[in-house]
Amino acid sequence: MISEPRPLVVCADDFGIESGVDRAIVELAQTGRLSATGCLVTSERFSSAAPLLSGLPIDVGLHLNFTEFLGLPGFYTPLGRLIALTYTRRISRIDVRRQIEVQLDLFELHMKKTPDFVDGHLHIHQFPVIRDELLAALSRRYAGRLPWLRDTRPTHMSGSLPFMQRFKAHVIGALGARRLVSQAKRAGMVVNDGFMGAYDFSRPHPPYLSMLSAWLENARINSVLMTHPAQYASDKLAFGRDRVEEYRVLGSENFAALLERHGLKIGRLSSV
User: Fold this and answer.
1) Cα–Cα distances in angstroms (integers) from residue 174 to residues 149, 152, 185, in the given order
2) Hey, which of 13, 36, 44, 55 has its CA 20 to 30 A from 116?
């Protein structure tokens, strides 16, 4: 008996950051290579880019931003300082609450809908204080239709991946994911089962297709594969060359063949 392919959420982060990213996400969504994208609503260009997502067969969510100024005012601080502030509880809950509410408002204003999911730029949604205020806001605003949340705890890491690439994935998951998931489930929210796609852009790494193969062999039902595709990238966009390569591979027949080989199909977590 041939088993039914397992659903895999393929999520592109950073919609709204640059036109090359937005075009890549729209194209990959139209061709069935993505099932979700997270929006940087604090980008000054998001309001004009948002209509591009209208009608696409994907989940559209908020990519909550506390670290990068992209044109709209708000509370932003470098990642290292944000970790220190949240883990010592020295961050202002009022500032955190305001930042979350403003970004949810912006998402609803420009997307004309509530978010299908919420995650965090640089995974900040799972940090102490931020996760508390985020869950409270989502429960209050969307009690009738709760968005799903990203669990960043990685699936099993293949030994074919370099140690530092596996290490980064585990560090991300260790920064609050377990506590976030526990609180989210108590609130009745859905989370993904397993997380893939994290790698250290700044270090030497295997070709993206090779890493994809290593990740997908350990995918579970409704795991999330995080991606950062771009058709092209400006000099200001971090790790632009890697983003363009992700776009090339995700749109290729090699990616389709990998999905088939590992018994996977691209699916939307909002349908669960």
Assistant:
1) 16, 8, 18
2) 44
Burial class (CB in 10 A: 0-12, 13-18, 19+), 47: middle
Q: The dihedral of CA 2, 196, 66, 244: what is its sign?
A: negative
Residue 269 has pLDDT above 80, yes or no: yes
Residue with tokens 């205020």: 133
How many Å apart are CA 203 and CA 170, to the nearest integer?
16
Best CA proximity match to 217, nearest among 264, 171, 255, 168? 264
Task: Extract the tokens encoding 157.
Answer: 């890491």
Which residue intervals of 188-234 are DSSP H helices? 208-216
**pTM as predicted:** 0.96
The single-letter DSSP state of residue 203 is: S
Contacts of 155 (CB under 8 A, 6+ apart): 194, 195, 196, 215, 218, 219, 220, 223
Homologous superfamily (CATH) for 6-271: Glycoside hydrolase/deacetylase (3.20.20.370)
Query: Tens of pLDDT along 192-234?
Result: 999 999 999 888 899 999 999 999 999 999 999 999 999 999 9
In whole angstroms, give the CA distance from residue 1 to residue 129.
Answer: 49
Contact between 223 and 269 (Cβ < 8 Å): no
Beta strands in 69-151 (DSSP E): 117-120, 148-149
| Token digits of residue 204 | 């030497």
Residues 6+ apart with CB under 8 A from 186: none
Residue 211 and residue 258: Cα distance in Å, rounded?
Answer: 11
